[in-house]
């Protein structure tokens, strides 16, 4: 393997232009006063929170917008860098940012339970609210129900939007099992809360035990007996109490979820899919893109985080490795041998990442994308966020 | 074999880790490794992700224990995707012989209702099924030599495994309570062990430390911390001079232009920055006092051969 051998792929290993069709213009998006909401979504662990924070910072510093970032579950150090020390439903102004353009950055962490409590308080009397809060089902559900976090994130987004205090709201979505949960969970929760099952549980109380639909009554009886058998009578009593207490709020839950859903379909919103160049994350992004298209939600583009790149264009991986072996065999220049292996690994990684990224861009050629170069160390200060923001834009 | 048992003594291995750390691959590799030598193991997933099917490139798994891999020496790995609805129906049928009535319940949405109203209940059903498989006997013999659970990620693992506390809030007596108590006892016994998979990156390591502390507080035994995708050090020197690189490149007959030399020097510098960070993180993990197992990065991704390599590495550890 001579040093002069030129493999056919030489040079292409560091050609990034092939990764994306159209390049996503993040600055254009953030500068557009008609855009009021940016939603960052994607699988867990792809850097959604960091992306959301970096976008918020850039909107404030570069585009002079009064911005609020709603984070769901930020890493501790990232939260601290934005001055967030605890779950707190109030936006706090982030210090240490450049306000020369007239922009401001505020950040908040979603307190799921408190948001749920607020919704309850808004829709019912103080006495009823107290009953609901004391119910063990409410306590379990408001803190652990799968989907509560998504519902409450949407609820909070709706609140922030209707307050109309912000030029731009940047939303980080919950670390769900699936990115689609953000869209599905609120509907699932509201369907559940005003669903058939709850009505059935309530039916005997409402109609004095008689129902027009004997079939329903029969299966309800069966259901209720089974639940009693399996879970015990106390649990059923608590459940009925919970259901009865929530009864007055049925319409409210669904209506609010529906309203927020409509805002998400509005052109004032821009969805940013966030992915890392890994198979699962990119597949998740593709599911989400399909879904956004189907729901007529405004998909602005794809952010590919943690993409590696090499500035050294003339050294293909194989050639570098062969040269490293030769140097090692000669027993000298071990440092250069190591450097060549580091380079070869990097080139292979960039190639692999581009192949993974291409599975998305091939399937969605019309969706613009932008790559963010991987940083050697994790980002957990405002300077780091600024760097990411510059790479994005 | 005796050695393997002493190295991985538990019968139920719960594998957790932050999303993206490769916990499903590690769980699969562990199931393969423990099946060596004519053993039978069960690999279980509970989150409806069909991660096992994707990993083994098969059709989505039904709620059934099916063989997913044969292992040299006559061993086999079976796989099961536990669906909470199916688990509830099975449970009801087992204890109450509901049969068709159970299906009627599903029709009116009662099953969906029962498994969503209380996630604690859902977790009791999922962990209950895992317990059943772990303790099941057939013809006087254990059905499985080992069960490996691809568990929920670190952020949810404490709540998932702490079934008693979650259900106790809702069911104070009755069969669900009994069921959750027996699961809780199993998870706190030497029969089971929780392993945490991590990468040498800040967030996964932080979550690993948090999860270990949480599990210890719950008195749930933690087995090992598994460092996935580790790489041998390629350069150890603290400093790289361009002159040295240039000399080496010339020696190897490669281009020695300024762009190449500067580019390589930057790549080495970034690499060393990364390595330094990794050493700090490794030290933080060592401080837990738990045994660390290192698995190599698979340059070609996780395929069959890669899983076998990870399985062998786990069994050596």
From TrEMBL, chain A:
One Pfam match, given by its short name, reads: ArsA_ATPase
Ranges for domain ArsA/GET3 Anion-transporting ATPase-like come to: 36-308
Q: Which GO terms describe its molecular function?
A: ATP binding; ATP hydrolysis activity
Q: Which InterPro entries does its entry note?
A: ArsA/GET3_ATPase-like, ATPase_ArsA/GET3, P-loop_NTPase
Matching SUPFAM superfamilies? P-loop containing nucleoside triphosphate hydrolases (SSF52540)
- The domain of life for this entry's organism is Bacteria
PANTHER family, per this entry? ANION TRANSPORTER ATPASE-RELATED, ARSENICAL PUMP-DRIVING ATPASE ARSENITE-TRANSLOCATING ATPASE
Q: What is this protein called?
A: Anion-transporting ATPase, ArsA/GET3 family
Please name the source species: Paractinoplanes atraurantiacus
From TrEMBL, chain B:
Q: Which organism is it from?
A: Paractinoplanes atraurantiacus
Please give the superkingdom of this protein's source.
Bacteria
> Which InterPro entries did the record assign?
ArsA/GET3_ATPase-like, ATPase_ArsA/GET3, P-loop_NTPase
Q: Which GO terms describe its molecular function?
A: ATP binding; ATP hydrolysis activity
Q: Name one Pfam family in it.
A: ArsA_ATPase
Q: What is this protein called?
A: Anion-transporting ATPase, ArsA/GET3 family
Q: What is the lineage of its organism?
A: Bacteria, Bacillati, Actinomycetota, Actinomycetes, Micromonosporales
Q: Which residues form the ArsA/GET3 Anion-transporting ATPase-like domain?
A: 13-170
């Amino acid at each position: 393997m001579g040093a002069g051998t030129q493999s056919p792929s030489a040079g292409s290993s560091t050609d990034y232009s092939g990764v994306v069709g159209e390049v996503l213009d993040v600055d254009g998006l953030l500068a557009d006063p008609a855009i009021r909401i940016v939603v960052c979504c994607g699988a867990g662990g792809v850097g959604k929170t960091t992306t959301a924070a970096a976008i918020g910072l850039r909107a404030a510093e570069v585009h002079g917008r009064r911005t609020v970032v709603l984070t769901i579950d930020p890493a501790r150090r990232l939260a601290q860098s934005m001055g967030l020390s605890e779950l707190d439903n109030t936006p706090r102004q982030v210090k240490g940012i450049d306000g020369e353009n007239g922009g401001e950055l505020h950040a908040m962490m979603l307190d799921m339970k408190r948001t749920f409590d607020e919704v309850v308080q808004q829709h019912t009397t103080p006495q009823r609210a107290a009953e609901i809060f004391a119910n063990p089902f409410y306590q379990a559900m408001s803190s652990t129900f799968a989907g509560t976090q998504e519902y409450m994130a949407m609820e909070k987004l709706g609140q922030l939007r209707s307050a109309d205090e912000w030029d731009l709201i940047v939303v980080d979505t919950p670390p769900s099992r699936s990115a689609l949960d953000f869209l599905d969970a609120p509907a699932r929760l509201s369907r559940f809360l005003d669903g058939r099952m709850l009505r059935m549980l309530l039916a005997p109380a409402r109609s004095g035990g008689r129902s027009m639909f004997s079939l329903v009554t029969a299966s309800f009886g069966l259901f209720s007996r089974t639940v009693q058998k399996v879970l015990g009578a106390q649990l059923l009593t608590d459940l009925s109490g919970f259901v009865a207490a929530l009864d007055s709020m049925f319409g409210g839950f669904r209506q609010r979820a529906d309203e927020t859903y409509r805002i998400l379909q509005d052109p004032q919103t821009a969805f940013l899919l966030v992915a890392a160049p890994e198979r699962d994350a990119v597949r998740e992004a593709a599911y989400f893109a399909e879904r956004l298209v189907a729901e007529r939600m405004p998909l602005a583009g794809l952010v590919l985080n943690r993409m590696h790149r090499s500035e050294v264009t003339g050294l293909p991986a194989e050639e570098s490795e062969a040269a490293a072996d030769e140097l090692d065999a000669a027993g000298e220049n071990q440092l250069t041998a190591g450097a060549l292996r580091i380079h070869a690994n990097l080139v292979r990684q960039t190639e692999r990442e581009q192949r993974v990224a291409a599975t998305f861009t091939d399937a969605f050629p019309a969706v613009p994308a932008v790559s963010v170069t991987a940083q050697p160390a994790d980002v957990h200060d405002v300077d780091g966020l600024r760097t990411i923001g510059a790479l994005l834009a | 074999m005796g050695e393997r048992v002493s190295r991985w003594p538990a019968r139920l291995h719960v594998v957790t880790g932050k999303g993206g750390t490769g916990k499903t691959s590690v769980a699969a590799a562990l199931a393969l490794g423990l099946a060596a030598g004519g053993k039978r193991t069960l690999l279980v997933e509970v989150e409806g992700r069909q991660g096992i099917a994707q990993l083994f490139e098969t059709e989505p798994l039904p709620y059934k224990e099916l063989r997913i891999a044969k292992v040299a020496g006559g061993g086999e790995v079976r796989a099961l995707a536990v669906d909470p609805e199916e688990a509830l129906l099975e449970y009801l049928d087992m204890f109450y012989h509901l049969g068709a009535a159970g299906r009627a319940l599903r029709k009116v949405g009662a099953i969906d209702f029962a498994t969503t109203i209380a996630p604690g209940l859902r977790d009791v059903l999922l962990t209950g099924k895992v317990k059943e498989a772990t303790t099941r006997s057939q013809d006087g013999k254990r059905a499985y030599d080992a069960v490996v659970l691809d568990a929920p990620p670190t952020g949810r693992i404490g709540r998932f495994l702490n079934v008693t506390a979650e259900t106790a809030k809702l069911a104070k007596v009755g069969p669900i309570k009994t069921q959750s108590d027996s699961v809780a006892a199993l998870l706190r016994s030497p029969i089971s062990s929780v392993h945490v998979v991590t990468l040498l990156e800040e967030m996964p390591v932080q979550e690993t430390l948090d999860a270990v502390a949480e599990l210890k507080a719950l008195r749930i035994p933690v087995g090992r911390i598994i460092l996935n995708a580790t790489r041998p050090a390629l350069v150890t020197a603290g400093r790289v001079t361009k002159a040295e690189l240039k000399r080496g490149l010339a020696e190897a007959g490669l281009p020695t232009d300024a762009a190449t030399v500067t580019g390589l020097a930057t790549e080495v510098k970034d690499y060393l920055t990364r390595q330094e960070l990794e050493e700090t993180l490794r030290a933080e993990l060592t401080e837990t006092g738990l045994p660390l197992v290192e698995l190599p990065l698979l340059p070609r991704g996780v395929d069959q051969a890669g899983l076998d390599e990870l399985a062998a590495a786990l069994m050596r550890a």
